From TrEMBL:
It comes from the Bacteria. Keywords: Transferase. The lineage of its organism: Bacteria, Pseudomonadati, Campylobacterota, Epsilonproteobacteria, Campylobacterales. Gene3D superfamilies: 3.40.630.30. Transmembrane segments: none annotated. InterPro entries: Acyl_CoA_acyltransferase, GNAT_dom. It comes from uncultured Sulfurovum sp. Residues 9-147 form the N-acetyltransferase domain. This is Acetyltransferase.
Length: 153
């Protein structure tokens, strides 16, 4: 299996997997992002993919914010490839790159997703704040922050 920076030519495959992962994980009321934004993210943000036998089976994404932090915005793995450590490795390669920039990062996570919360805490996201209705009514989230200085090796 290969973990690497995503190629601009792969944005439609990433967007397709994003839609499927989103529909499996949440209400499926809307698709959060379309191909157009993935095209921009692959070229201008930190976007990494897991590829097996030529197929993209997972992705991670972070982008810079106005305050200098990076927002870890996406992490998803194809359903048939979960529980193999792929998400952990996608986060690891993303965070190594963010650490090279010497900046803090943050993410949001659904409060009723203990496996994701445990993974993020294991990876150094130690500051946790509950935000009611963060993404709209009944869309609560934890905002977890990873402080660069605490994770510097």
């Amino acid at each position: 299996m290969e973990f690497r920076k995503a190629k601009t030519t792969e944005f439609t495959a990433i967007a397709k997997l994003d839609r499927v992962a989103w529909l499996e994980s949440f209400k499926g009321d809307f698709i959060p992002d379309g191909e157009h934004v993935w095209r921009i993210w692959v070229e201008y943000a930190l976007t990494f993919v897991a590829v097996e036998k030529g197929e993209i089976i997972g992705a991670s994404l972070a982008f810079p914010c106005n305050d200098g932090q990076y927002s870890v915005h996406k992490l998803f793995v194809a359903k048939h490839q979960r529980t193999k450590g792929i998400g952990t490795e996608l986060m690891r390669v993303l965070l190594v790159t963010i650490d090279e920039l010497k900046v803090d990062s943050f993410l949001t996570v659904y409060p009723k997703n203990p496996p994701a919360i445990a993974l993020y805490e294991k990876l150094g996201f130690t500051e946790k704040k509950f935000e009611k209705d963060f993404y709209g009514e009944e869309e609560d989230r934890f905002v977890l922050t990873r402080i660069f200085e605490k994770n510097r090796k």
